[in-house]
Specification:
Layout lengths: L1 H24 L1 H9 L3 H34 L3 H27 L8 H20 L12
Helix pairs in contact: 1-3, 2-3, 3-4, 4-5
């Protein structure tokens, strides 16, 4: 699964870059079409989008880290952290993207579950790294 974590993290990071580029270059026009001249709401939604892309990128890198850790030291806790990071990206970032594009305010009530998933992932990753055994160093005799 470790290579899958690294692949998934890379793909999600690339997606974050693409969504960030859309946020920087095309989102404002779309939001202005939806909200008219309500500049405050457009600005708030752009900030929501930026937050979603930043958290997606950070946690995509965390998923890559999970892949590296599990490659070197197989760890169920680290793998579980990877699942929580993925859940966090889907719930936190995904629902923020949906909130911005669909303007469904009730989605904002679910977003904190993604934040809790991120926190849980970091806690599990911390425990996983505390429990890692040190690699055996092989010394060669002359």
């Amino acid at each position: 699964m470790n290579r899958h974590w690294m692949l998934l993290g890379c793909l999600l990071a690339g997606l974050a870059v693409g969504l960030g580029a859309f946020g920087a270059h095309g989102l404002e026009n779309r939001l202005t079409a939806i909200h008219g001249e309500n500049a405050a709401l457009v600005s708030q939604r752009i900030d929501n989008w930026k937050t979603a892309t930043a958290y997606q990128m950070h946690h995509s890198l965390a998923i890559i880290l999970v892949g590296i850790i599990t490659l070197l030291y197989p760890s169920k806790l680290a793998s579980l952290a990877g699942y929580l990071f993925l859940t966090g990206i889907l719930l936190f970032s995904g629902l923020l993207y949906a909130l911005v594009l669909l303007e469904k305010p009730f989605l904002g009530a679910i977003v904190p579950l993604g934040g809790l998933s991120f926190i849980g992932g970091w806690v599990l990753l911390a425990f996983a790294t505390c429990c890692l055994s040190r690699p055996t160093i092989i010394q060669l005799k002359d």
